């Protein structure tokens, strides 16, 4: 049953990808990319990774789509005709894809209990999370407590990205709106 | 912006539920899927939805640009501040064991406050990027 659902979702993802490649209308491409993210989120749910699925659905399908639409508002909706033949990118993509598939051949089967990642650290966290932190969702306890320093780094990355985008884009409106430009100076 | 009555009415009905869902994802992250990152994105998405239907000016009146710009660093400060607070209790940086009367409650407080910091930074960054894109005009 699970395999059938996965196959269906992956087939749909392949179809959506082909649609993204073939279409020249960027609006349709953005919507298809959002659909792709939702399908990816569904795959994550089938794999029991609900936290990742939620992030994929909200960031990949939600915010990214909105930001892409915002970009489309600033630029043209129709994709320009390519000036080069797609043969070289095709070869690169095929080689990289083949390398990735070759890499997956060595990975252990999904959900197998006696693999490296399921025996040492992972099992340790599963055992320790509730007695030590009282948090049943191990993803949260690992993210915010055991690996809290990593998450601080991630938050800082988000912070840096936000400040960077604001520095690049928010400045452009300064001549038009003096007041908000000055407020921006105070904040940054 | 669109002058579609149905979309506007449905959006107004949906907005409080989206915000409550964001808070649920935020504060229920200890027990179910979710946490500061996802909740921040959902909260930002609700304001973005509002901006798409009622115009950028209305959204900027709801969440002003200066609030967003202050929130981006404040979230990181909350996160790092919890780590420094752990140091003041005699533990390592980001060790929450002594933040409350026993280590389990200390951990729960630490995780809760850290997730609040993530929420503040993520939601304001998403909103700030949207404002920056949408405010450029054609």
Tell me briefly what this model is:
The complex is a heterodimer of chains A (188) and B (138). Chain A is an all-alpha fold and 188 residues long. Chain A has helices at 2-22, 26-46, 50-74, 87-104, 116-119, 121-133, 138-146, 148-169, 178-187.
What are the secondary-structure elements of chain B, in order, as H or E? HHHHH
- Kindly provide the radius of gyration of chain B, computed on alpha-carbon positions and rounded to a whole number of angstroms: 18 Å
Which residues of chain B form runs of ≥5 with pLDDT under 50? none
Structural class of chain B: mainly alpha
Total E-strand runs of chain B = 0
Number of strands of chain A: 0
Structure description:
The complex is a heterodimer of chains A (188) and B (138). With 188 residues, chain A is mainly alpha-helical. Among the domains of chain A are: 1-79, no CATH class; 148-188. Chain A is built from nine helices and no strands. Chain A has helices spanning 2-22, 26-46, 50-74, 87-104, 116-119, 121-133, 138-146, 148-169, 178-187. In chain A, helix 1 (2-22) runs antiparallel to helix 2, helix 2 (26-46) packs antiparallel against helix 3 and helix 7 (138-146) packs across helix 8 (148-169). Chain A starts with a helix and ends with a helix. Chain B has one domain (5-134). By secondary structure, chain B is mainly alpha-helical. At the A-B interface, helix 3, helix 6, helix 7, helix 8 and helix 9 of A face helix 2, helix 4 and helix 5 of B.
List the helices and strands and how they pair.
The complex is a heterodimer of chains A (188) and B (138).
Chain A: H1 2-22, H2 26-46, H3 50-74, H4 87-104, H5 116-119, H6 121-133, H7 138-146, H8 148-169, H9 178-187
Helix pairs in contact in A: 1-2, 2-3, 6-7, 7-8
Chain B: H1 5-27, H2 36-54, H3 56-62, H4 65-88, H5 103-134
Helix pairs in contact in B: 1-2, 2-3, 2-5, 4-5
